[in-house]
């Protein structure tokens, strides 16, 4: 298979973790007979510095022509002045909107070896296998903003069509898993959430084989910590999904572990770890590359239809964790390169009988 992959390293640890993901994809291409063509483009703070625009026109054109986009992270203290006109994060939000990737899939699994790193007791973590589906191109992130000297507003706006399409994606995904959807809103207070809930109830009729429950976001924040194994697919709006998934990362042991896939109507997708540019550790070669590497696996599965290769990467990551080659955020001492090299070495090993079954 031939594929064009646009790589947007971005800021902070972004270049370190995308380099790791690209080297894993190169290994897959070489060993499975694929031709992946990579091209790097600017986004975020470094694009503001080089081009005066967090999403330069050239970057957007290449992303729209690519089969998939792999992104590191954007942002950092040097571009975080509240009065700044241009912000790195605007580039990422515009890219998501321009690509029409309205459904952001964020899987959360807990490797038993990492359970001690979680704030929860191991018995609560057994069987945790969540898939968050976060609406990605609507809500407060994209509503009108106003600002005077002492007042600011961010409009939260959702249309029925925006809610329906992300819900359908969540229900469809639930059919490939545990057939349970939890829809998270704040319908006791917010009008957008009341529209969300009404729409969910209607869309659920199209999926009679999938169980639906509603949960208010504040109690969901607690339930994620008290009974995380009770959930399967969790679908929610943009802002709630952003916050709940960072919380869920603590269950897995580190923000550095969680991947994501942002999908629209076609097969082209945007793939990025859920973490940010981690300015506190950038440039030191210690960032955990596994979230980015697992995002590359999602790219193979969702944009290139290479499910076997995707599973091979996921199994290799599991083996590396099992073997205890861990970066510092996971209590180990491996650097980014060592962790990446261990994944590539594990890819070359034969699958265990259990994995092959
Ligand atoms: N998708 C994105 O590009 C994205 C996502 C989140 C935050 N951001 C931006 O990143 C900047 C920093 O934000 P923040 O500090 O709140 O969040 P962050 O995710 O960058 O970092 C939070 C903490 O997690 C650690 N961490 C994150 N990723 C890690 C990894 N791969 N390996 C090891 N440790 C890791 C960091 O060292 C830090 O202690 C901000 O400008 C923010 O807007 C960007
Ligand atoms: C950087 C920011 C715009 C982004 C978001 O909130 O979507 C990040 O936090 C994420 O989770 O991808
Ligand atoms: Mg976030």
Automatic annotation (TrEMBL):
GO terms for molecular function: 3-isopropylmalate dehydrogenase activity. It is an enzyme of class 1 (oxidoreductase). It is found in: Cytoplasm. Its EC number is 1.1.1.85. It comes from the Bacteria. Pfam families: Iso_dh (PF00180). Keywords: Amino-acid biosynthesis, Branched-chain amino acid biosynthesis, Cytoplasm, Leucine biosynthesis, Magnesium, Manganese, Metal-binding, NAD, Oxidoreductase. Pathway: Amino-acid biosynthesis; L-leucine biosynthesis; L-leucine from 3-methyl-2-oxobutanoate: step 3/4. NAD(+) binds at residues 76-89, 276-288. Homodimer. This is 3-isopropylmalate dehydrogenase. It comes from Tahibacter harae.
